[in-house]
DNA sequence: CGCAACATACCAACCAAAAGGTATGTTGCA
DNA sequence: TGCAACATACCTTTTGGTTGGTATGTTGCG
């Protein structure tokens, strides 16, 4: 991004750039690398400029995760639209979205980002609210213990993926994914 | 702990106290609350005293997780000793240990501790090494996809427990646990 | 329209606090 | 006495955050 004097004023773009850069930095260097200084610099803005858009660092982090939840929600919605079978459709979509959204590239700082952000009560609340709301909405089709186990296994796979030491990939992610989806149909 | 002038010199005890206090602080306030100052203070020692036992903060964190892995390993070993059925015995023990070691009390900063510590490559390596070694050792009895799913579901349950917003407990942890164990027997 | 009045979007410099770490003492046990 | 086990005091860096100012729009009014 060019410096402010060279570009047209476009606060919405700056806001987006800040969020994008924050996400990139956090994924690459973990939560310790997510400093307002670094984010502002990466976005071609000064710290003061950042604080104009986000009144505090917490607000920035909240914006980050609001984006993330929104994206996950959209992916799940899309996956559900293509699923003819009603029973377990949310669980299948959850599995698909979880496996598809695995951040590729270097994986270990990403884990720290996600879960350490959940130390922030406001972020934790965001996630919990979203999840319980979806669970409530699809209670009729996805409220079975066997499906809960599938979702938890997906979470576990997500965690395993994030925590894999250096290149060591998760053995057979695709096969695992299909197996979990099959579990929602045959039970 | 009394101050140094009032107590007998007992470096081993001080070391243990430091690790225990560090664990407590991290569980209560998350990784951000795990400062050498706070740990030393809580243990009734000054910062200089802490740095005498642990040459750096990273060393302290590594000691913390070495303890954790050791405890988990002991629990799994104990659970396996009481399990007559060979097939899936490691997976069952893993499930039992995972559910039994759920840190009670307020849970959200704990999640941050665990996973953010895994941003430290040395800690991540510790965990990965332990896990792959156990997997290799029990390859004959626990190398089936269905058992892998059970272990991942246990991880997911662990994550869900850590991430529950304020009091909201995981619905039916005990039932879930039994269900997972049953899955290792009936498949 | 044209221009003053105001609001928005930034920048540059600075600040207090807290962090990890070190250098140098002091104390107590063998 | 000598060394391990601490305490005290200090340093450096980095952090989130603030302050005052400036450039760029936007709006109301004669």
UniProtKB/TrEMBL annotation, chains A, B:
Residues 12-72 form the HTH tetR-type domain. Pfam families: TetR_C_28 (PF17937), TetR_N (PF00440). Residues 35-54 bind DNA. Keywords: DNA-binding. GO terms for molecular function: DNA-binding transcription factor activity; transcription cis-regulatory region binding. This is Transcriptional regulator.
